[in-house]
Write a structure and sequence with these properties.
Layout: H1 12-35, H2 40-66, E1 71-72, H3 74-85, H4 92-104, H5 120-129, H6 143-146, H7 149-156, H8 158-176, H9 180-203, H10 224-229, H11 236-241, H12 257-267, E2 271-272, H13 279-300, H14 305-337, H15 343-375
Antiparallel strand pairs: 1-2
Helix pairs in contact: 1-9, 2-3, 2-4, 2-9, 8-9, 13-14, 13-15, 14-15
Bound molecules: zinc ion (2 copies).
The site of one zinc ion has 7 residues, from helix 2 and helix 4.
C-alpha cells in the first residue's frame, strides 16, 4: 500500500460518541417509546432544544461569528453561545476557524477541513473521525473572535458547559417533570443525533445536490429541501459566493428561518448592522451563470446562426451594463472620499443603479425566453 493512502489514526472518543448517539436514537428511543411511551412535555422539550440548537449554529456560530454578517447585543451573544455549547460541535472559536478555512479553501482536499472533493461520507462526518492534517485548527484566521470576551469565555469553559447542557439539563428537567428517561432520551440523545446530522448535511448534501444558481467555481448548491431541514442554510451556492450577507435565501418566499430570526432580533434591538450584498452584484452573478448555460446549449445543438447571434448580442449588452455599473461605483467612491456628495448626487446615483438593475432583470427575462426556445 502506498504510504500516502494510509489513513490517519481514528479519534476514538469522537467516533464512540457518534456511534453511541446513533445506536441509542435508532434502537433504544423507539423501544422505550413502544414500551413506556413519551409525554407531550418530553416531545416539547425535544422540539425546543432542537430549534435552539439549530438557531445557535446558524444565527450564532455561522452567520454572527464565522462570517460577521451582523452585530449582536451581548444578551443575544450569551444566549447563542450557551445554547451553541449544547450542539456538541466544538467551541465558537474552533468551529469558526474551521469554517473560515472551508470557505477560503473550498474543495481543496488538503486544506478544506470538510472538502466535498473527498466524497459524501467524508464531508458529512468522516472528517471528524480521524486526525486528518486538514482538520487542524488554524487560530490565525480568527483574530477578531479572540478579542470577543463572550467567545473566549465559551471557549475556556466549553467542556463543562457542553456537559451540563447535554447531560445535566435533560437529567434535571427529567427529574423535575417526573419523566427522567423519557426526557433524557428525547431531549438529550435523539435531539443531539438529529441536530448533528441535519447540520452536517450542509457540508455534505449541500455540496452535492441542488442548483448552482450563482457560481460553478465551487461545489456548493442551492437546495430548498435542505433549507427546510436546516433553518434556511440550504441556499448554500448563494452563501459561498456572498458569505458576508446575513441572508442565505434572499427572496422573501425562500424559507430561511435564520434570516427571519435575525430580522426579529433587529426589530427588538438585539441585532444591528445587518449586511446585504448589493442587488446588482447578485443579479450579475446570476446572469453570468445563465449566459454560460445558454452558450452551452447553443454549442451542444446544431442551431441556426440567428440564435447564436442573438445570444452574442445579449452578452455584449450585458457586458456594457456591467461596465457602466463599475464606472458608476468608481465615480461614487471618489465622490465619497472627497466628501462632495450632495443629496441630489445621491439620488441621481441611486436612480442610475436602479436603472441598471432593471436592465439586468429585463435581460434575464429575454434570456429565459431564448433558453425556452432553444429547448424546443
Ligand atoms: Zn459559511
Ligand atoms: Zn460549504
Amino acid at each position: 500500500m502506498n504510504t500516502q493512502d494510509k489513513k490517519p489514526p481514528l479519534l476514538f472518543s469522537t467516533t464512540f460518541m457518534f456511534a453511541a448517539t446513533a445506536l441509542v436514537s435508532l434502537i433504544v428511543v423507539p423501544w422505550y417509546g413502544f414500551t413506556h411511551g413519551y409525554s407531550a412535555a418530553a416531545w416539547g422539550l425535544f422540539a425546543l432544544f432542537w430549534l435552539l440548537n439549530g438557531l445557535s449554529i446558524t444565527a450564532g456560530y455561522h452567520r454572527l461569528w464565522a462570517h460577521s454578517t451582523y452585530k449582536a447585543h451581548p444578551a443575544l451573544s450569551w444566549f447563542l453561545a450557551i445554547w451553541g455549547a449544547q450542539t456538541l460541535q466544538n467551541s465558537i472559536l474552533v468551529w469558526s476557524a474551521q469554517h473560515r478555512n472551508h470557505h477560503k479553501y473550498v474543495d481543496q482536499n488538503d486544506k478544506d477541513p470538510y472538502s466535498a472533493g473527498k466524497g459524501l461520507w467524508y464531508s458529512h462526518i468522516g472528517w471528524m473521525l480521524r486526525d486528518y492534517p486538514s482538520g487542524e485548527t488554524d487560530f490565525n484566521n480568527v483574530p477578531d473572535l479572540k478579542r470577543d470576551p463572550i467567545v473566549m469565555w465559551q471557549h475556556r469553559w466549553y467542556w463543562p458547559l457542553t456537559a451540563f447542557m447535554n447531560i445535566g439539563a435533560p437529567m434535571l428537567l427529567g427529574w423535575a417533570l417526573g419523566e427522567f428517561w423519557g426526557i433524557v432520551l428525547l431531549a438529550g440523545v435523539l435531539r443531539l443525533f438529529v441536530a448533528h446530522h441535519l447540520t452536517f448535511f450542509i457540508n455534505s448534501l449541500a455540496h452535492f445536490w441542488g442548483k448552482q444558481t450563482y457560481t460553478e467555481k465551487n461545489s456548493a448548491r442551492d437546495n430548498w429541501m435542505l433549507a427546510l431541514l436546516t433553518w434556511g442554510e440550504g441556499y448554500h451556492n448563494f452563501h459561498h459566493l456572498f458569505q458576508s450577507d446575513y441572508r442565505n435565501g434572499i427572496r422573501w418566499w425562500q424559507y430561511d428561518l435564520t434570516k427571519w430570526f435575525i430580522n426579529i432580533c433587529r426589530v427588538t434591538g438585539l441585532a444591528s448592522g445587518l449586511r446585504r450584498v448589493p442587488k446588482f452584484r447578485i443579479l450579475r452573478a446570476r446572469l453570468t451563470m445563465e449566459f454560460i448555460r445558454a452558450q452551452r446549449k447553443v454549442e451542444d445543438s446544431p442551431l441556426d446562426q440567428n440564435w447564436k447571434t442573438l445570444i452574442e448580442q445579449e452578452y455584449l449588452q450585458f457586458k456594457s451594463t456591467i461596465q457602466e455599473w463599475q464606472e458608476l461605483q468608481a465615480e461614487r467612491a471618489n465622490e465619497v472620499s472627497e466628501k462632495l456628495i450632495s443629496r441630489w448626487q445621491k439620488t441621481a446615483f441611486h436612480t442610475h443603479v436602479k436603472e441598471l438593475e432593471y436592465r439586468l432583470k429585463m435581460q434575464r427575462r429575454r434570456l429565459a425566453l431564448i433558453s425556452v426556445s432553444l429547448v424546443k
